[in-house]
Specification:
It contains nine helices and no strands. The chain is globular, with a radius of gyration of 19 Å. About 65% of the residues lie in helices and about 0% in strands. The chain starts with a helix and ends in a 5-residue tail after the last helix. Helix 4 packs parallel to helix 6 and helix 5 runs antiparallel to helix 6. By secondary structure, the chain is mainly α.
Length: about 190
């Protein structure tokens, strides 16, 4: 009996905490689209409260909230892939995942938004935060620069494009103690292809 109970209990516990990837979500949540979005929003509000008040809360409390948000995002993707609010939820979940230092989830949600909603107004923002995830969490500075370059070439007239250009300059010209200036405009104009 113990041999059967433990694996079942573990599976129920993981699914209730939001563990696993989108592909692992195979059981219907039995919630409406509105309920899924509402519950996601509830956890997102709690997340924001903790993240924005680090002196009042322990930042390690963000991880369980990220897991809970992921459960509702994954269920929304599975059950309501054409939801009119899915792009906004994906962007919020991606940025929150970045803020809780979960780079894999951040990239997953932001990339899903870009691939599924290529004409959505949140695509430039999502592209920027993919670059930011590469830069900050994965320390992949070349990957981050390339993500920023794709953003400003694809959406040159957006605020996110300007922020991406600044990020490239900052990566290319770290604060130096030397007085010599580095020509960062060359770095902006040349794409490094692999």
């Amino acid at each position: 009996m113990k041999k059967i109970f433990l694996p079942i209990f573990t599976a129920v516990l993981l699914s209730s905490c939001g563990g696993g990837s989108t592909n692992d979500v195979s059981v219907s949540s039995n919630l409406s689209e509105k309920e899924l979005i509402g519950r996601f929003s509830k956890f997102k509000s709690q997340f924001d409260e903790i993240f924005n008040n680090p002196s009042k809360y322990k930042q390690e409390d963000l991880a369980p909230l990220t897991d809970s948000m992921a459960y509702f995002v994954d269920a929304l993707i599975l059950e309501y892939p054409k939801s009119s609010q899915l792009a906004e939820v994906l962007c919020e979940a991606g940025v929150s995942s970045l803020n809780s230092r979960d780079g894999e989830r951040s990239e997953k949600y932001l990339t899903y938004l870009i691939d599924s909603f290529p004409d959505h107004s949140l695509v430039p923002k999502s592209m920027y935060f993919i670059g930011r995830t590469k830069e900050v969490l994965f320390n992949d500075l070349e990957g981050a620069k390339e993500a920023y370059k794709v953003l400003y070439r694809s959406f040159p007239k957006t605020d996110w494009s300007e922020i991406a250009k600044s990020s490239i300059k900052q990566i290319s010209t770290p604060i130096l103690l030397e007085s010599e200036s580095v020509n960062s405009s060359e770095d902006l104009d040349t794409a490094e292809t692999k």
